[in-house]
Design goal:
158 residues; mainly alpha; 0% strand
């Protein structure tokens, strides 16, 4: 498979996962979410879709770059890509836990685990390809903020 095609495939997969996660979110943004007490630093709802779209493209590009190294048959590359897939699955799960199940505490626990997986993915990517690793940093920063936001919403609504 051509290198560009792999990158495009991973980007499309990440964006599709984001879209599917958004389906769970969309219904609750206008119904359940407004009923929650939120901290003063809660961003406006319109900001989340563009931020996540850019992040999914960036992490998809990073994942595609690492997938292109799979043919080296190095265990470190395979391990990094497995972590990438695992964190992507947990990313999708968070939307279901928070918006689908309305379970703020479980979503908080899950997003902390997600952050740990993203951090490990970043470290592994950085060793293989500096650009791929650095493409994960905005995602790590946004999820760091999301942990604080999730924790605050849980605390204010428990």
């Amino acid at each position: 498979m051509q290198k560009i095609l792999r990158i495009v495939l991973v980007v499309v997969t990440c964006v599709a996962i984001g879209y599917l996660s958004g389906m769970v979110t969309r219904d609750n943004i206008t119904t359940w979410y407004p009923t929650l007490i939120k901290p003063v630093f809660n961003p406006p709802n319109w900001i989340f879709a563009p931020v996540w779209s850019v992040l999914y493209i960036m992490i998809g590009f990073a994942g595609g770059m690492i997938w292109n190294r799979i043919e080296t048959n190095e265990e470190s590359v395979k391990s990094a890509f497995k972590f990438f897939i695992a964190q992507l699955a947990l990313n999708a799960l968070w939307s279901y836990l928070f918006f689908g199940m309305h379970n703020l505490l479980l979503a908080l626990i899950e997003i902390i685990i997600l952050w740990l997986l993203i951090f490990e993915t970043y470290k592994k990517f950085e060793k293989i390809d500096k650009v791929a690793g650095r493409l994960m940093l905005p995602y790590l920063a946004w999820v760091s903020f999301a942990i604080i936001l999730n924790a605050s919403i849980w605390w204010l609504n428990k």
